[in-house]
Every structure is written in C-alpha cells, then in structure tokens.
Design brief:
The protein has about 525 residues and is α+β, with helices and mostly antiparallel strands. It is about 25% helix and about 30% strand. Strand 15 and strand 16 form a beta hairpin.
Length: about 525
C-alpha cells in the first residue's frame, strides 16, 4: 500500500513536547493530509495539531480511565424506582461544581473492571458488581487522546453495607487528598426523569453537567417516550382545588386514592399520631391483636372522654375534621356516579355511626410476613393516617401493589357496603400491611425490611352508615347471617368484624373475597 493511501496520518516520530506537568503534557503533532498540488510531488502536505496527553498513558492505544454507570435497583420488577449513582464535585478548570458519573484512572497493569469497582467504592462507598465493560471511547478527541471505557455496575441494595451507605447521604468518609478538598459527594438521581432532574440542578444550583452523563440522560428520555406511561393506581386528589371530580375514577380503578384537605393540616395529623401513641402505651383498654403483630384500640367519639385528658382535645379535633372530609367525599361520590341528589349518601351517615382505630405495629425481622392480614373494609369509607412507615399494599390488577405515602395526606379506600350500593362500580379492594416474608408482594424486600425495622403507627377512621340502614337499601326483614345482602348495617358490621368495640378485629370475608384469595 502506498503512503498516499494511508492519509491522513500522524508522524509520531516528529512529535514535539511543548510543556509538561506531573499529570499532563502538551504536544504538537505533525500529520500528513492528501494534497494533489504538493510542491514536492509526494501527494501530501504537512499540518500541525496541538493535543493534551496524560503523563500516565502507557501507549497510544492504552485505556486511561473508567467511567462508571452504576444503577441502584430497589425493585427488580419496577425500573421506575431505579437510581443512577452520580458524584458532585468542584472542578477548577470550569470554576464550578459539576455533576458527573463516577470515574477514575486505571493503574498500571490493572484491568478496567477491577479499576471500576475500586474507584466506585473510593468515591461513593458502594460495592458494585460488574455487568458489562464497553470498548474504549474518547471524551474530547479534538483536544486529547484520553480514552475511557464505560463500566456498568449494579448495586445490590439487599447488601447491608450498601443499605447503610444509602441511608447516609453525607460526604464519603473514605475520601482523601484533592477529592476531599473539592467536596466530592455522591448523588442519587432517578433513572426515570433524569434529564429533567439535571436541568433542575443546573437552574437552581448553577452546576455544570458532564457531557457523557447528559448524553445518557437524553438517551433515556428518548427511550422513555417510547414506553407507555406507568399507570397511577393511587392518584393524589386535592379536595380544596376543584379536583373532586377525580374521586370516582380513582375508586373505580383501584378502590383507593390519596387526598389532601386544608380541613386536616399536617400539624393536626402529627399531633393526632402522637396522641394515639401515648394512649396506646398508657391505657388499660389497649388490645393485642389475636393474629397480627399489633396493638390497637377502637374508639367512638363519645369514648374519647374516658381516655388520657391531655389528648382528648387533639383527637376530638381530628375526629371532627374527618367527619367533614367524609361528607365531602360522599358528596363527590354521589355526584361522580351521576346521582341527582348529591347529599344522598351523606344523609345515610347523619347519625355519625363512626369510629377510629388507633394502631401500633410491632417491629419485625426478615421472617415477618403480614403485619396486618389481607382484608377489605366493611363500611363505606376508610380514611387512614400513617406515620410514613411502608408496607401498605392493595390487591389491584392481580398484584399486591404498594400504596404510596404522601406527607400531609390521607389514604382513602372504599368499604364493601358502599361497593355493593354502587353495584360494585366502586371497588372494595383487599389490602394488607406486608412484611419481608409476605407472599406475592411487588414491594422490594429492601423496603419491607426497612419498614419492619421500626414500629409503625396509624389511625384508621371508619365511616359506617346509620345502624338501621339495610345493606341493600331494601326494606327486607330477612336478616339471617347466611345472606349478608339483607342484614342491617349494625348486623353486617358485627358479622364482618367479629363483634363490637375492641372485638372488631376483622375476621370474616365476603364470598367474593374468599374466591379472590383462594
């Protein structure tokens, strides 16, 4: 092959070193390009190009560094919960903090995979497993011959060390030297919506983004556009913001929704949970559940005066707020299913046949199954307040799905009476509080282990219709327990719950529920 057929080419024998430091060297290259009009008849002309070279580079073709794409996988069945491990650090060349993928130089004789695991631990504290190593790529080929390979790691979040590292998002204690001086810290950025998250950080914090990370985020956004939007089984509805028309669609879909209302501010919710905890710890009326690892107490509004006096005012105020929210929801439901009389359901509750259950779930371990067994509620509406500890799941579309916690919000679900009154247009959905050993959970084991490591507190408000209303709204006098369709509300609740007061432990299923669980 003639020399002209190899053009353009660099003549490395004539490379000039312009200057050098400990880590970088500036070189001027001479390279030949095809030129039919060359004066020497060689068919080529000589050009010059300046480049930066790492002094640690072993050869022209050696790989200088690794760039690490590490995915924190919280739930193998739900990639929307994945997080990308990034680092934030000050970079003097751009005089700014940057958001980057973890990266580092490869030591002499070191394999890229080994370098990636080492650098990843040094910068983030996580232990990762190598999934894939890419061929060499070039970060800025017009400026430097620096090359890097992308190493994909997966981080096992069931690993105790990784879990502890995740829960402590402070500066990594293992950093030394200039990385520590530049304030390097790890960041978790959601895999879904990463591009938007990077844009937010750029606008709010003035950070600069590593080009490879930005390209990755852009590619993910393009990919997300081809994926159908994830179904929202448990939508958030603001009852103050003309969103009441969204109540019925949610209850038709899953039987659950999450609501906020100015009638129940966050401070009152927190005070109510604290009051509940004090009552359960001090009262002789606290009951230990016969099968679930929890303690509870059933209270009506009239019962509050018998409990600890300093907490009576808090729970009474909380109770009154829930009754107002109950009426708004019942009116929204009547309107949403097309009833002309939007007060119809509210009038069936005007005797305030309601109660609250104060609940405290005990700590568990890896062998803990359900902290509250599978059941549906048997009244019309349940309004649940929790302390944010996870585990609540609803059986929707054939799977046990995690019901989200939203600070300052209530979880609402339909009871079997209202479901029957709407001819099952609204769903009375089976639900439970799951543990790590629960069967069929789609919640990650890691999340369930975290949940059972602490006590869980909640307050459930049960809105039941007036006692003498028939479950079918009929005037039938046949109230035998073999036919729950013809019971009064009072009889139905006694049958479903196993009694009244403290005995209401929820021990019976409807025929339809037994079929679903079989």
């Amino acid at each position: 092959m003639s020399d002209s057929a190899k053009l353009p080419r660099v003549d490395f024998d004539t490379t000039e070193t312009v200057g050098s430091t400990r880590w970088m060297r500036l070189e001027t290259l001479s390279y030949h390009v095809a030129d039919e009009n060359s004066t020497d008849g060689s068919g080529s002309s000589l050009r010059k190009w300046d480049r930066a070279v790492r002094t640690t580079k072993q050869s022209e073709d050696s790989i200088d560094a690794v760039v690490i794409l590490a995915i924190l996988r919280h739930d193998a069945k739900d990639i929307s919960r994945d997080e990308i491990v990034c680092v934030k650090q000050y970079r003097p060349p751009v005089d700014a903090y940057t958001i980057e993928l973890p990266a580092g130089l490869i030591d002499a004789g070191e394999e890229p995979a080994k370098a990636a695991v080492r650098e990843f631990y040094e910068e983030t504290g996580y232990m990762g497993k190598v999934i894939d190593v890419s061929p060499a790529s070039y970060l800025s080929p017009g400026l430097t011959n620096e090359s890097a390979c992308m190493v994909r790691l997966e981080v096992d979040m069931t690993n105790e060390a990784n879990l502890k590292n995740y829960e402590n998002q402070n500066l990594h204690d293992g950093l030394e030297g200039c990385e520590k001086d530049r304030g390097l810290e790890k960041l978790m950025i959601p895999r879904v919506g990463m591009l938007g998250a990077l844009h937010d950080m750029q606008q709010k914090e003035g950070v600069k983004v590593f080009a490879a990370l930005y390209s990755l985020a852009l590619g993910m956004q393009i990919g997300e556009g081809a994926i159908p939007a994830k179904k929202d089984y448990f939508p958030l509805v603001n009852l103050d913001d003309n969103q009441c028309d969204q109540v019925v669609p949610a209850l038709r879909e899953s039987g659950f929704l999450v609501v906020t209302s100015s009638l129940l501010p966050l401070g009152l919710q927190q005070n109510a949970l604290a009051a509940s905890a004090r009552i359960l710890e001090s009262s002789s009326k606290t009951v230990t559940h016969p099968s679930d690892p929890k303690q509870y107490m059933m209270l009506s509004f009239d019962d509050l005066g018998d409990e600890i006096s300093e907490d009576v005012g808090i729970l009474s105020e909380y109770y009154r707020s829930l009754r107002k929210i109950r009426d708004i929801l019942l009116q929204s439901i009547a309107s949403g299913i097309g009833m002309d009389d939007t007060d119809f359901f509210s009038r069936l509750h005007d005797e305030n046949n309601d109660s609250i259950r104060l609940l405290n779930y005990q700590k568990g371990d890896v062998n803990t199954a359900n902290r509250c067994k599978e059941h549906s509620d048997y009244g019309t509406l349940t309004l649940l307040l929790t302390d944010g500890v996870g585990g609540l799941e609803a059986f929707v579309d054939g799977e046990w799905r995690q019901v989200p916690y939203v600070e300052g919000a209530l979880i609402v679900n339909i009871g079997s009476i209202l479901s029957e009154w709407t001819r099952q247009d609204l769903k009375a959905t089976l639900h439970r509080v799951a543990g790590p050993a629960s069967i069929g959970s789609t919640t990650s084991t890691n999340d369930l282990l975290k949940a059972v490591s602490v006590e869980r507190r909640s307050i459930a408000y049960f809105a039941d219709p007036n006692p003498n209303v028939a479950t079918t709204l009929s005037q039938s006098n046949d109230h035998s327990l073999e036919n729950e369709d013809n019971m009064t509300i009072d009889e139905y609740i006694k049958w479903r719950s196993g009694g009244t007061g403290a005995d209401r432990s929820g021990v019976s299923f409807t025929r339809m529920e037994e079929e679903r669980l079989s």
